[in-house]
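seq:
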Amino acid sequence: MRSHLLAWITTTLAAAMPAATCRASDAPPVRLVAIAAAGQPPKLAADRDQLRNIFLKKIFIDDNGQRLIPVNLPPGTPLRERFARHLLGMGEAQLADYWNRQYFQGVSPPYVLASQQAVVRFVASTPGAIGYVASCHLDAQVRVLLVIDPAIDAAAAGCTATPAR
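struct:
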């Protein structure tokens, strides 16, 4: 009886150990996502083309007449470069040229916020704001509009802990 109990305990502990230790490969992938406020997201079809047009400021209002406010991360950051490449189809130099041309037509580029945490806070508290962050920075105040890139490097995305989603 005692040997059966010892075998059962050993088997149970061995089975529980992999679940208790979290390896990096067990963590969900980090994604580059476009976000809006959870409480009052803009009324729009959040597809790639529409989001691209919002960030290029070709679309200014949603279907309810709410002003849309796209926000960017600083130039040169890995997430902004990935965002520009994957959603806008431009490199940083092409994007700078685009905004230089738009500026002379009276169209300013999106606001630039210093960090992903700042993007989340701004989007959560500003009606019509749309931003992008790594999925590890999501919280309950924002919701995902679109997955822009399904798997990005967690370290390059600024994810120091296990991704939240």
